Each structure stands twice: as structure tokens, then as C-alpha cells.
Amino acid sequence: MNATTLFGLCGAALVGIGLYGLITNPEPLRKILAFNLLGSGVFLLFGVIARRGAAAGLGGDPVPQAMVITAIVVAFAATAMAIALVQRLWDETDRASIGSDSSETAEEKS
Amino acid sequence: MPAATALEATTAGGALLVLAIVLPVVGILLSFVLGGRHAGRIAALLLPASLSVACIVFLKVWQSEKSLSYVVGNWKPPLGITLRADGLSVAMMVAMAIVICLIGVFAHANFDSRAASAETRAPMVFWVMLMAISGAMNMIFLGGDLFTLYVALELLTFAAVPLVCLDGRAETLQAALRYLLFALLGSILYLVGTALLYGSYGTLDLVLMSQRVQIEPATLAAATLMTVGLFAKTALFPLHLWLPPAHAGAPAAASAVLSAVVVKGSFFLVVRLWFDAMPGLLNVAGSQLIGALGASAIICGNVVALRQRRLKLLIAYSTVAQIGYLFLMFPLAADPLHLQYGDALTGGMLQAISHATAKAAMFMAAGLVYAALGHDQISELGGISRALPMTMFAFGLGGLCLIGLPPTGGFLAKWLLLEATIATAQWWWAIVIIAGGLLTSAYIFIVLSRAMGRPSAPLILRAAVPKYQEVAALGLALLSVLLGLVALGPIDVLQVGRPEAPMAWLR
């Protein structure tokens, strides 16, 4: 197994873990962390694709590298916005959940 | 590849496409430089300017019957980025610019930033985000490669989420957070697909992609991931859970933008993906599955809408149902056995446009009712149609368009879709279209009959409603009615720039 395949498999594993966490975790903060994990997997995938496209004496295809920088910026902005929303929600309600109303009332009762 | 080389040069008037994207961005930057108090005035200048650019591009494409393109920095694809305006993009661009302008007129009453002595948050955010949505939508319509479209999609999401929680109440913050998380899942799935496609074909340009694309596992995986991600952003059943609280909780003008304009952006990307980037790749099982999701959205959305007690929630669930109609065009237009390309595609796009006008009018009307009564409980609407006749007339006209009665745009759209069901011998979709229309008419009738009934107590209006807000709502409703007449005029523009042989991979 060469390095490219290894990194590709790492990326796939990160995507899998992130996707699982994003779907199953109920708390928004954990969802945001899972989203970042998922994002890291995708960025690694871009790196692998750049490496596979290496030609003309370059170590990697520059186009996916350029795209991954944009994608990182976008993911950073998204994370910042999500955290700002979570914090504001916490300030307003002392609770940051996005569950449906029934689970909230259950929490209030307990 | 003569078609590709012809497209790769910047055409005359191509710079207008750049202008369509840059104008709203200039407005946003100016709002930050000059201060939020001027944001409303800047938007009042720039949104009509953006509309006129869209109209000029529309006329150019319609008259020359050729798509416009602009190669950014003269770097040709696959390295560079191309902006292209074909028939689909110019039609959507003009329609969305008109809707955004009229929403701006309506919102002037609620978000007038000049009255306040200091800069206030809500008006500043509203106008900046409205311009951002206008720019991002233009970028989605004009973007010529999948990564530019990804960036545009993200811009659209980041502009839409703050609109949900403009008033900062806890439940709207929660709705916004849920919307953002759904949208992030959607965009990251789209990004995975983009990476896989670049890895397979070495390009993301739509035209080059359509020439190179083949049926192979990586392509299908990428296409599936991207489609599911876009479904989450478009709120197609069963990924619609975020939409009703987000759209119903926002202020009326913001709900109108979100419901009429924003969901159409990700829908447009699904169309771009399957009809432009990968023409002919959608097989029967896949297109039937998309159609089945659309049909479930129509039935579920309408049935749940019938059971709502609040007017804004009813309209939001009606959006869920109407989004379903948009996806019915996939089994009808992408059927490889029949190659019925034109009519169903036109019907689907027309449905997107007529839903945008009608739904914006209905959300505005609901907002005016809420402002006048202080609530929007459907059971206590009695007498409102006497107090606000113009508003309820606009609501009714919008409803007619959603039901699909002639001569509205909704009628023409559903007629084209019905025709396509017969032409491609897929009668089961016809049942869904007709049943959906019946269910829609049921809830529109419930609201209108309540509104025209007698009030239980003498009706006291809490606030006077500005006339021009009512006129804006009525204007949009009339547009949705008159859209049915485009059959006589510029409807052929939608076919400009369509590939003549959609089955490139068969050759």
C-alpha cells in the first residue's frame, strides 16, 4: 500500500466518523465538531487527489490544492457562525439544544 | 469538440455577467463602509440596478438565441472559471431579481434604517443579507463550474441563516441553528462529490464535464452524494424538517425571501448537475426515486399544511409540498427511453418561478395579517378580508397559482408536467399532481372562508398597514397570475443553450 492510498483511506475513515457523529449526536456543539472532522476528511481527500494528479515535475496537481484552501475558509466561516448561534442560544435559554419540543419539556420536568 | 471551443471565448456582453455578481457585493461593502443606517438606501439603489442588468442579459440571450459567456481573467477551463448565461439562468435570474426587488419594497416598512438615530442590528443585517442573497443567486445561475457553484451555495446559506433569526428569539435561534446544521451537512456532501468528480475527470467545468462523463462507480457515488446534499438544502422530503420552523418564525419579508428565493438556489444546482454536467446519466430507477420523493413531499406537505392552526406555518408546509412539484420534472424530463427533454424541463422551471412569486405574495399577506391582528391563528381570521381586502385578494391569487387554476403560472407549469406524464406514459405522476392540487385547494379554501366569515367579536386592528406593502404583495400575486401568459411570449428562452444531443456518452 503506498502513501496515497493510505491517506485516501484515512480521509475516508474521517468522513465516515464525522458523518456518523453529525447524524447521531444530539448536542449542537458535538455536531459542529463532527462537521469539522468530516471536513478534515474531505480536505485530506482533496490532498490525495492532488497527489494522484502529480505531473510535469510538480509534486501535486495545484488545482485541488487551490480548491481546498477555499473550502477550508468556507468551513471555518461556517463553524464560526454555528458557534455564534450556539452561544447566543445558550445566552437566551441557558440550554443549547436543537431537539424537538417534546424532548425539551421532558428536560424541564426532570 | 467545436461546441466547447465556441463556448470558451468571452462573448460580447459577457462583462454584464460579472456586473450581475459584483453589483450586490459592492452594495454590501458600501453598507459596511458608510454604516448600517445607509444600508436600506444602498439596497434601494443596487437591487433595481441588479434587476436591470438581469433584464438586459435576458433580452440579449432571448434575441440572439445564444448563451453569453465570460472567461474570468481569460484563463480558459479546465484551469480557469467561466460564467455562462443560458436560457435557464437568464429566466431564473430575472424572475428572482423581480421577486427580490418587490420584497425590498415590502420590507421598507419593517426595516427602515433611516428613522433610527443609531445603527440598529436588524435593518442592517436584513438589507446586507438581501443583497448577499441577490449576488449569491446570480452566481448560482451564472457559475460555469461545480466548485464556483459550491462557493455560491455556501454564500447563499450564510446569507439565509441570519435572516431566520433576525428578531433573536430563542425559538428562531434554534430554527436557524437547525437550518445551518442541515445546510452544512448538505454542503460537505456536495464538496465530497466535487472532489470525486475532479479526481475522475480532471475538470469541474460543466461543459467539459458533460463531454467526459461516463457511467462508473466513482461518478455515480459523487452524483448521489451531491444530490442528497442538495436535497437537504432544498428541504425535499424527508429532509424538510428544518424548513417549517425556520420559514414560519422569521419576519414576513425574510420568510418571503427564504421561501421564494433561497430554496430555488439549491434546486437549480440539482438541475445543473443532472441536465448539464451529467446529461443522460440519470437512469430510470434514480429518476423514479427522485420523483417518488417529490410525490411524498407533495402529499405529506399538503396533508400537514391542512392540519396547521397558524397561517405562517400553513404557508411554510405548503412550500414543502410545492418543492415536491419541482422534483417531479426529473422522472419526466430525464427519462432516457423517451428523451422528452423540453416540456417537462420548462414546466419544472416555470413551477419554480411561479412558486417564487406566489409564495412571496402569500408570506407578505400573512405578515400583514399578523401585523394587523397581532396573531395569525387561522380560526380567528374572521372579518380580516373586509379590513384588509387587498391583502386577502393577494393571498387568494397566490393560492390560485399554487392550486394551478388557469391562467396562472402554476396552471401552465402543472399543465406542462401533466402533458409530459402522458407523453412519457407515466400516469402515476399525473395522479399525484392532481391530488396535490385538490389538497392545496382545500387549505386555501379553509383560510379564505375563515377570512371572509364574520368575526366573533368586532375586529380591532392593532396597527394600520401601509398601502404600499399591500401593493407589493398584490403586485407579486398578479405576476404569478400573469405568468401563465408567458406561453405566448418568451417561454422558448428556457431552451436556449440546451445541448442538442443530451446523450453525449452514448455516441
State the CATH class of chain A.
Mainly Alpha
CATH architecture of chain A: Orthogonal Bundle
Low-confidence stretches of chain A: 101-110
Number of strands of chain B: 2
Question: How many DSSP H or I helices of chain B?
Answer: 19
| Cα shape of chain B | globular
The computed structural class of chain B is mainly alpha
In round numbers, the mean pLDDT of chain B is 85
Query: Count of helical segments of chain A?
Result: 4
Order of helices and strands of chain A: HHHH
Backbone structural class of chain A: mainly alpha
Which value, in Å, is the CA radius of gyration of chain B? 22 Å
Give the topology.
The complex is a heterodimer of chains A (110) and B (507).
Chain A lengths: L2 H22 L3 H25 L9 H32 L7 H9 L1
Helix pairs in contact in A: 1-2, 2-3
Chain B lengths: L1 H7 L6 H20 L4 H26 L3 E4 L10 E4 L1 H21 L13 H22 L3 H19 L5 H32 L4 H7 L4 H18 L8 H7 L2 H26 L6 H23 L4 H23 L8 H32 L10 H4 L1 H15 L5 H15 L3 H26 L14 H16 L25
Antiparallel strand pairs in B: 1-2
In short:
Chain A has 110 residues and is mainly α. Chain A has helices spanning 3-24, 28-52, 62-93, 101-109.
What would you note in describing this structure?
The complex is a heterodimer of chains A (110) and B (507). Chain A is an all-alpha fold. Chain A has a single domain (3-109), classed as Helix Hairpins, CATH 1.10.287.3510. In chain A, 80% of the residues lie in helices and 0% in strands. Chain A has helices at 3-24, 28-52, 62-93, 101-109. In chain A, helix 1 packs antiparallel against helix 2 (28-52) and helix 2 packs antiparallel against helix 3 (62-93). Chain A is elongated and about 60 Å long. By secondary structure, chain B is mainly alpha-helical. Chain B has a domain at 282-488. In chain B, 71% of the residues lie in helices and 2% in strands. Chain B contains 19 helices and two strands. Chain B has helices spanning 2-8, 15-34, 39-64, 87-107, 121-142, 146-164, 170-201, 206-212, 217-234, 243-249, 252-277, 284-306, 311-333, 342-373, 384-387, 389-403, 409-423, 427-452, 467-482, and strands at 68-71, 82-85. A two-stranded antiparallel ribbon of chain B has the order 1-2. In chain B, helix 9 packs antiparallel against helix 11. Chain B is globular and about 70 Å long. Chain B starts with a helix and ends in a 25-residue tail after the last helix.
